[in-house]
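Please go through the protein record below and explain what the tokens say about the fold. Record follows.
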Amino acid sequence: MTTNTEKRWQIVIGTIIVQMGLGTIYTWSLFNQPLEDTFGWELSAVAATFSITSFALAFSTLFAGRLQDKLGIRLLIRCAGIVLGIGLILSSQVSSLWMLYILAGVVVGFADGTAYITSLSNLIKWFPEKKGLISGVSVGAYGTGSLLFKFINGSLIDTFGVSTAFMLWGIIVLIMIVGGSFLLKEASVKSQNQTLQVQQKDYTVKEMLKTKQAYLLFVIFFTACMSGLYLIGIVKDIGVSLAGLDIETAANAVALVAIFNTTGRIILGALSDKVGRLKVVSGALIVTAIAVSILSFVPLNFPLFSACVAGIAFCFGGNITVFPAIVADFFGLTNQSKNYGIIYQGFGIGALSGSFIAETLGGFVSTFIVIAILCIISLFIALTIKPPYQRKNNRVDIITSKIAD
């Protein structure tokens, strides 16, 4: 007979498999040049596909919680995996940019975001005593999927060509996500008296949006996401333009970002359980502000450039890991998927804002200065913000599994 502990770790394994499959979409940059070479489309037009994917991913999180309520976690993840896989498989047959935007952009992004936020939130509910660590494991798996598939998808493109690579990628991801879904099980939240513990109020979305804390957390999350996503998109160009590196050396920074992004997710997630989540976020904002200031005002060499890039990536990974747990701490676990879906819109807006600011103000340095200012504002918020509900009773939310599916 399976014990509750064994069941929880089975769900961890299933979530890791699902998240690794979902994280593969961050290998999109590998497909830009091959698609340009194959179809003659402009590189910037092809690259815009990933912006559409990122926006659709964030937008889908607004609806994911409601879909989970209707379908349950297993069926929802299974359907999302099938849709995501089919979206990539059909992308192998595209002959126009608008078809690529719809399939690889909207369809893939919506399916990815739906599965991402619901599987993450479900896992956090199973481990209320280790929200930061378990969030780090889940989001770290997402980053690991991106890192591993840089090699897998690169090999598929080189061996079979870009169209067949899309099809094989879709098949692999479909198998991973659907397969992982069989190990998942829905979690529910119940309150039970426990000594030396406190009560957590569970906010609905409407109740959350009536608090100032929701908007303040959004500002912090938007700042963290914009700094990281902007860097990821232009890190090679920064190396060439600001640090004077050759193209090949600057390209190595892409791998550096992936490694430190994933490492930050695991380390800072676990650390947040011990020292406090907002302290971790505050430290990450300080490091990010210092790093972008150095990139803006200090003459760069390779070691200094690499240190700044690694620091920003590490902090970005940590911040997006800690935030699901912060939302749970502030607003409860029962409506975690829906509540975090609102705050998560900072990701989609952050993905678009960095490039918009750069185009408006005219380059990297001006954008980094704006990011530094936003980091200082967000730091002040992180140091002063308090949960909206002052918990007085000696009770705590604990997790119990639902009766068999």
In short: Strands lie at 187-193, 395-401. Residues 205-384 form a domain with the Growth Hormone; Chain: A; fold (CATH 1.20.1250.20).
